[in-house]
Amino acid sequence: VCQLRIVSPGKKRFYSTSSESLQNNSLKENLARVHEDLLKLQSILNAHVVGHADVKEAMILGLLSKEHVYIEGPPGVAKTMLSELVGHSAALNHWFYQLHRDVRLNELIGEAVITK
Known about the structure:
Blueprint: E1 3-8, E2 11-16, H1 19-24, H2 27-48, H3 53-65, H4 79-89, H5 105-109
Antiparallel strand pairs: 1-2
Helix pairs in contact: 2-4
C-alpha cells in the first residue's frame, strides 16, 4: 500500500493505493488529487527556498518512493529548512542528524559487538 498525506492549512488529505480506495474512487481521480497536492508542496518549497530545483525534486521523489534522501552541501544553503518543510507539509515524523567530520559509525547505528 502506498500512502501520501499532504497537510494544507485547515485540512489534511490522505491517499492510499490499496484496493479498497481504488474501488471507491477511480484511479484517475486519485492521481489528480495527488498531483494537485504535490504541486502545492512544490509551491510551498518554492515560496520558502530560492533555487535548488534538483534538490526539491529529489525530496519529492524520495517522499513518493518512501526512501531516504541524503543532502550534502556547505553551511547555509537551506538543507535543514528543506527537510523540515517537506516533513511538516507531509505530516511526517522526521528525524535528521547533523553530520560533521568527526562522526563515527557507532554514533549512528550504535555499538556493534562481534562474537564467535
